[in-house]
Amino acid sequence: MRRFLIASHGHLASGLKSSIKILTRDDSMVKAVDCYIDESDFTPKIQDFIDSVQPDDEAIIFTDLMGGS
């Protein structure tokens, strides 16, 4: 299965996930992580995604800034 992680500053990630749901009616393969919107640590959410990827899965990670933060 192809799975996607979208991680971004602010609410870009959840906005993109919402758009995917509108266009495809299925966002189950997408996890959105909005970073730096408050003081909470977002790294466990990213690690959970990575840990959930199975050997036969294809994982695509999309960020708003290559090498940023």
Sum this structure up briefly:
This protein has two helices and three strands.
Give a description of the structure.
This protein has one domain: 3-Layer(aba) Sandwich (Rossmann fold). The model has no long low-confidence stretch (mean pLDDT 94). It is α/β, with parallel strands linked by helices and 69 residues long. Strand 1 (2-9), helix 1 (12-24) and strand 2 (30-35) form a beta-alpha-beta unit. The protein contains two helices and three strands, in the order E-H-E-H-E. The protein has helices spanning 12-24, 43-52; strands at 2-9, 30-35, 58-63. The longest helix has 13 residues, at 12-24. The protein has a three-stranded parallel β-sheet with strand order 2-1-3, with helices on both faces.
Low-confidence stretches: none
Q: CATH topology, what is it called?
A: Rossmann fold
* Rounded Rg: 12 Å
Q: Classify the oligomer.
A: single chain
What is the succession of H and E elements?
A: EHEHE
Major sheet attributes:
3 strands, parallel
Binned, the helix content reads: 25-40%
The total of helices stands at: 2
How are strands sequenced across the largest beta sheet? Answer: 2-1-3
Shape: globular
Name of the top-level CATH class: Alpha Beta
Percent strand: 25-35%
Number of beta strands: 3
CATH arch. level architecture: 3-Layer(aba) Sandwich
